[in-house]
Inverse folding.
């Protein structure tokens, strides 16, 4: 844990990017609380994630029950069907393998917290639209509060006002009042967008992402129309799940993948309009799926193009649609048959989730599995190379670094690795060349900068060594803390001033 999480300085958590990268104050506060209780024991952090996931399941149940009542005409309201939809929506949500990453990966705590408050905010807004006058203000205040907490957890919750807008027309009364009520949410979304962007620029997160994942706007747009169907495929058939995907999305408008995605989007939009009155559950689910996907469509470049955690909020629409469809089917077919079919689907997904959870046992099992499923994943190859490098298994490390270099000639770790080998055999001239090559490919690679300083020190160039050690000391990234300490010691050794 960094010094940030060893103390509970709320002012620091809520006024800056306390983790040094992103503005996630609620997540970071939860980590600090975990550290106070559990220290460095990872089991405590995982237990907190599991408890939060259970709360998410209850929130999904509540949201699904509220939505089922919201979408049914007054004459057709029935608690039996409402409970059926809510139970199976929450049950299928609970066991689906796609959520394994969110629960098993401790740093996905932001997704769990965001999910909890987003589901509650959505449910309370539906209650606001339909409640009696005496309770409307209560539900409205609760919605605003939950939305703020969701934004403090993760920026992807920013989509909620887009979802609230069609809900105003799908049900409820006093539509003009409801439309006016959206203004504070739009204001919060705009303010959050400005805040997240400003902090991301200050911490160089945006620049780093743009340099690695920016690309052309046209290419990102073509990827964006395909991404919803990538996640839909993983929801329907949750096989080949990976901590880091290497999907090769089509980048030409005339390709079958792009053309098919565009046609499907038009068909789904037409279906949403056509069934708005007859089967409002369809436009409701499609609106949730579309709105919640907008922040993760890679239109604004993110650290990765697609990830299981990005589908966490959108997946509610899939389970709600299945559960609602089951409620309609059981009116025609025997209820036991419907329950058996749903149980088989749930049991199958639960088995796959149990098997996939084992992948997250440790770093090696995680990244070995990722490299098998996504053989072009630079993240997996670089992480495996680094793991074996730190263990001293240099042959394995070199193999993974070389594979990464073959995929991306701009990857710096193979050059760093060659520099380390040269430094180890005291070939400092070659070491300098390799380390500088790694630094040229990625100027934030703190290891390369530190070893450039060491190489200069080894050949007796104290002036250049001091320059690079000072560069290390000026790096504020959390992962550079150990190198800053070493650089300070080295700087004193070569006689440089800090």
């Amino acid at each position: 844990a960094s010094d940030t999480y060893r103390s509970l300085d709320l002012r620091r958590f809520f006024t800056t990017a306390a983790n040094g990268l992103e503005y996630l104050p609620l997540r970071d506060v939860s980590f600090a609380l975990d550290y106070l209780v559990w220290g460095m024991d990872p089991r405590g952090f995982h237990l907190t994630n599991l408890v939060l996931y259970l709360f998410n399941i209850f929130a999904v149940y509540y949201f699904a029950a509220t939505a089922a009542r919201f979408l049914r005409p007054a004459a057709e309201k029935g608690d039996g069907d409402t409970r059926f939809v809510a139970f199976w929506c929450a049950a299928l949500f609970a066991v689906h393998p796609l959520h394994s990453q969110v629960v098993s990966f401790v740093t996905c705590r932001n997704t769990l917290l965001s999910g909890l408050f987003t589901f509650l905010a959505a449910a309370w807004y539906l209650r606001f639209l339909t409640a009696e006058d005496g309770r409307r203000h209560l539900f409205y205040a609760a919605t605003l509060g939950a939305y703020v907490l969701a934004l403090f957890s993760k920026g992807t919750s920013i989509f909620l006002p887009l979802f609230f807008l069609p809900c105003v027309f799908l049900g409820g009364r006093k539509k003009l009042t409801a439309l006016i009520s959206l203004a504070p949410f739009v204001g919060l979304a705009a303010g959050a967008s400005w805040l997240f962007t400003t902090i991301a620029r200050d911490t160089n997160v945006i620049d780093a992402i743009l340099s690695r994942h920016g690309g052309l706007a046209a290419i990102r747009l073509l990827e964006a129309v395909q991404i919803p169907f990538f996640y839909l495929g993983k929801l329907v058939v949750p096989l080949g799940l990976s901590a880091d995907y290497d999907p090769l999305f089509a980048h030409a408008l005339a390709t079958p993948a792009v053309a098919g995605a565009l046609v499907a989007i038009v068909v789904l939009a037409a279906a949403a309009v056509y069934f708005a009155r007859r089967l409002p559950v369809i436009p409701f689910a499609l609106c949730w799926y579309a709105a919640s996907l907008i922040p993760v469509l890679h239109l604004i470049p993110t650290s990765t193009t697609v990830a299981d955690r990005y589908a966490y909020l959108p997946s509610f629409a899939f389970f709600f649609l299945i559960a609602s469809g089951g409620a309609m089917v059981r009116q025609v077919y025997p209820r036991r048959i419907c329950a058996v079919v749903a149980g088989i689907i749930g049991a199958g997904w639960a088995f796959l989730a149990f098997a996939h959870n084992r992948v997250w046992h440790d770093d090696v099992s995680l990244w070995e599995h990722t490299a098998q499923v996504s053989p072009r994943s630079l993240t997996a190859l670089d992480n495996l190379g680094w793991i074996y490098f730190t263990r001293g298994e240099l042959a394995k490390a070199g193999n993974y670094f070389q594979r990464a270099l073959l995929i991306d000639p701009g990857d710096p770790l193979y050059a760093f690795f060659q520099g380390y080998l040269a430094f180890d055999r005291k070939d400092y001239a070659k070491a300098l060349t390799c380390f500088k090559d790694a630094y040229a490919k990625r100027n934030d690679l703190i290891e390369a900068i530190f070893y450039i300083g060491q190489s200069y020190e080894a050949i007796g160039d104290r002036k250049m060594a001091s320059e690079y050690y000072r560069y290390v000391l000026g790096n504020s990234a959390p992962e550079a803390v150990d190198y800053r300490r070493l650089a300070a010691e080295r700087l004193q050794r070569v006689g440089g001033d800090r």
